[in-house]
Design brief:
alpha+beta; Immunoglobulin-like; 3 domains; five-stranded antiparallel sheet; three-stranded antiparallel sheet; 18 strands
């Protein structure tokens, strides 16, 4: 009698404890609460850039031949996955897919694994291999289609804070857009000329004014382009419209003028020396025209040792079991293997598919330097640092490579860690 009562009391407690146990990979719960051992991806994430949706995930623990990506206008479940739209299939080694939609709206996604036998497992676990919240696409227009066109660009010398400055004013055919203003000592007639230009700043196409304080005594040409038009890769500079034909210059005599009151707190100012020459902000080598390096601190360079010392170091490493590291191969991130990139991603892809894949490291460094003149979002900047780090590594600039890998580590920790472990290994 007592044992029967105890079983009635203990059974609900046991069921409660089982319900509280964590769900481990390989034994997830489906939308109806049942456990499953089907191969499932995890940590599925959605991000939106322009009219494209990036679906990314962590790979399934079991072997997978390929992944099927589905889209729907409502949450996808195990029962409704058959009604969802199959938008794409990727290899089992991939961890992302880029989708483009035809019209604005809210969209849900799910990723289904196919095992090596060719069997698909349409098991849906919310917030694991399916999104429980939608992503919203407000417009399907391409970035270039929604960009503003600068139809007039002027400059004038003005006085600002007791200094002579150059005021840039522009007229655009659309408000609410971001316009990038570039400055160069050379006339700007094509987007290729921006290699030798400096990004002065970004303004709203409605505000349309920008104050520049360049080095006096130097002639400058200006160009203004919508950011998205610039990133489209097309020639968007039209001299006389969005690029100045006549150079602007702050005369040295005006820059040297002293503009101070004659008396301060009742004391007469005397013996005030004239303003010194301004600091010349050189960004390119005068002899070659190539861009100078970033003015950042470098890790101390290693010092070569004589052959006998090198031999002793090798013997000590042999005794400790430490081996010389294997030379790594150039690596491309999963995000940069997706098809049909747009905007700034397209520009980065041209560098990866061009000098980076050809292992023309010096050329890759130059092109990446130019790429950083664009207004990049943090994730794209981190990817560019990752590739520039490798280019520096293969040119022997290991200290500079370390700094570049550190700048990419926040967004690509796993990929960067192996490189830093190699570079900082005591066996190096």
């Amino acid at each position: 009698m007592h044992s029967c009562r105890a079983s009635h009391i203990l059974r609900p407690i046991a069921l409660l404890l089982l319900a509280c146990l964590p769900t481990f990979p390989g034994s997830a719960q489906t939308t109806d609460g049942e456990a499953t051992d089907a191969p499932l991806v995890s940590r599925m994430r959605l991000s939106v850039r322009d009219s494209q949706i990036r679906v990314s995930w962590e790979e399934a623990e079991a072997p997978v031949a390929e992944y099927l990506v589905y889209r729907a206008g409502q949450p996808i479940t195990s029962e409704t996955v058959g009604e969802a739209i199959h938008v794409g299939t990727v290899d089992g080694s991939e961890r992302a897919y880029m989708d483009s939609v035809a019209e604005p709206g809210d969209y849900y996604y799910a990723v289904v694994a196919v095992d090596p036998d060719g069997t698909a497992h349409p098991i849906i676990v919310p917030d694991r291999n399916a999104s429980d919240r939608p992503v919203t696409i407000e417009s399907v227009a391409t970035p270039a289609e929604g960009a503003a066109r600068v139809v007039r660009l002027d400059w004038a010398l003005v006085e600002r804070n007791e200094r002579t400055a150059i005021e840039i004013s522009l007229v655009a055919d659309r408000e609410g857009r971001t316009v990038a203003v570039y400055r160069s000592t050379r006339a700007l007639s094509t987007t290729g000329d921006l290699e030798h230009a400096t990004l002065v700043g970004k303004v709203d196409s409605g505000t349309a004014q920008l104050i520049d304080l360049p080095v006096p005594g130097v002639e400058y040409y200006y160009a203004a382009l919508d950011v998205e038009t610039l990133l489209s890769g097309r020639n968007a500079i039209h001299p006389g419209e969005n690029a100045t034909l006549d150079p602007a210059e702050i005369p040295l005599e005006r820059a040297a003028e002293i503009r101070v009151p004659e008396r301060i707190a009742g004391a007469t100012i005397a013996g005030v020396r004239r303003a010194p020459l301004p600091l010349l902000d050189l960004q390119y080598r005068l002899t070659t025209g190539r861009r100078l390096r970033d003015p950042r601190a470098l890790v101390p360079r290693p010092t070569a040792v004589d052959p006998e010392t090198e031999q002793r170091i090798s013997e000590l490493l042999e005794r400790t079991g430490v081996r010389r590291g294997v030379e790594p191969a150039p690596a491309v991130l999963a995000e940069d293997r997706l098809p049909e990139p747009q905007g700034a991603e397209y520009t980065l892809r041209t560098i990866i598919d061009g000098p980076f894949r050809r292992r023309a490291w010096e050329e890759a460094i130059v092109q990446l330097e130019n790429y950083f003149t664009l207004p990049l979002p943090p994730d794209l900047a981190a990817r560019a640092h990752f590739y520039r780090a490798q280019a520096y590594y293969f040119t022997g600039e290991r200290q500079q490579a370390i700094l570049e890998f550190v700048l990419a580590r926040e967004h690509h920790y796993v990929e960067v860690r192996s490189w830093l472990d190699h570079l900082l290994s005591p066996a190096r």
